[in-house]
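User: Quick one: structure for sequence A, then sequence B.

Assistant: Sequence A:
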Amino acid sequence: MIRNHVQHLHQLIDDRTLPVRGAITVTALLSLPLFGTGVRALGSALDLGQLVLPLLVLAHVPAAIALIAIWSIGCDVCRTGGSA
């Protein structure tokens, strides 16, 4: 199931132009600290203790999206010899 989601994201990102993929990468990377801080704050406010860990894993989904976008950009650059 996770593989299907990753393949779907990869196809969606591959269909975008290079500047859009760059924007996806930057946005995803910038959102990482916000999600991490938000999850920790929520965990502290609700006194979740060890239950914060699964939420932190979910907070790192933007990192996976950024990696897929970077991979997609890299594949285009390699295919076109740098003139993408």
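Sequence B:
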Amino acid sequence: MESIVIRSYQNDEVRFAFVYNGRLYTMLMQWSHEQGRWNLQTYDQELLRDPSRHGFIVSQLLSNDKVKEFFESKNILIENVYCDDCDNVAVE
């Protein structure tokens, strides 16, 4: 994973932009007060049509050291991050 950018807005929204294998991906993570968790989503139609690929890209994102450091600095627990449209997410 290359060139990752993380932006946080008002403590309930985080946006990620990163390049993986020469392709730009963007993801949005929002806090759900009703569900008590972070919902990670994308509007990338290619990923939404392929839940396995989506899960793989999310795994790569969440396994990134910069993302882990960001989560630690914001007291975000990885077990509170949920991806509705993903299959087989594994964090290293």
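The chain has a mean pLDDT of 88. Residues 29 and 40 are 4 Å apart (CA to CA).

User: Thanks, that's what I needed.
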